[in-house]
Amino acid sequence: MLSVQHLYKRYGGVDVVRDVSFRVPAGQCFGLLGPNGAGKTTTLRCCLGLTRPDRGEITLAGLPVPQRAREARVRVGVVPQFDNLDPDFTVTENLIVFGRYFGLSRRECEARVDRLLDFAGLADRATARIEALSGGMKRRLTLARAMINDPQVLFMDEPTTGLDPQARHLVWDRLKMLLTEGRTIVLTTHFMDEAQRLCDRVAIMDHGAIITEEAPHALIEREIEAAVIEVYGEGVENWFEAYGKRLSSRAELAGDTAFCYTDEPEPLMKTLEGHGELRALRRAANLEDVFLKLTGRDLRD
Question: Disulfide: which of 53, 200, 258, 272 matches 231 by Cβ 3.0-4.6 Å?
């Protein structure tokens, strides 16, 4: 559904996208992950034909982009990072007006409204004004709006940012439903648990380039030891120097927390006995551990 080959884009003498290549088969969820400024948004804009690349080849829904981007976008739904619903219209009117942009007749749009509102859990809000909706409702309406043209491919830019846990899980359930229908999803998110839960494959970008691409579970197995022990509390620095670094395969002290990565957690856990001032969390390694290992813990603006 999406093929990107050797994509480059330069702004102000800086390569913000450098030799990016990936493919997204039909019916899969592909995650494009990276810190702020990694090049994710520029890559997606190039894929949609909204930004012209300097070099590279893009095929979206079987059509070359940017040459036939307008035709390709008819087959695509987009959930932007920030909701841009029209406050002058009701919930139903937002769906109908958006559908008209795709050349659908009013009757076709109206025939799809009930199904989409039920999909978004907004069946009882059909006549509500946008200002009367909560943040989670607006996000779900934006998702429903992206489905009005019955797209083959969905581009989703941080779809659950700002949502409470209940709303996030509802959106996850709806995205899984779309995947079971055979639709294709291209997802950017800063929630690594979201990417681990939804994506068949993820690519991690940094400084404009893809530094790794793989299925989430395979990345975790390849990059991180099986167990992670997080230790914090008064005296953690002394414990880290005495035991954390010595008994871990890899260890970091970030702020007031020690992160110890190991395939044999028991020796580390035993060193905590008698240190009542320290607290420890023992857990399995996850995609966030991979992300931080490959891109670092430094704050990005």
Answer: 258
- Cβ 154 vs Cβ 183: under 8 Å: yes
Q: Domain 2-215: give its CATH code.
A: 3.40.50.300
2-215 and 225-284: same fold? no
Question: How do 29-33 and 201-206 pair as beta strands?
Answer: parallel
CATH code of 225-284, in short, is 3.30.70
DSSP state of 151: -
Question: What is the residue type of 296?
Answer: G
- Tell how far CA 200 is from the center of its chain: 12
Residue 117: which H helix or E strand, with range?
A: helix 106-119
Question: For residue 10, which phi and psi values (nearest 5 degrees)?
Answer: -120, 135
Report strand pairing: 250-254 vs 257-262: antiparallel
Q: How do the domains of the chain map onto residue ranges?
A: 2-215, 225-284
Q: Residues 76-104: pLDDT tens digits?
A: 999 998 888 999 999 999 999 999 999 99
**Predicted model pTM:** 0.92
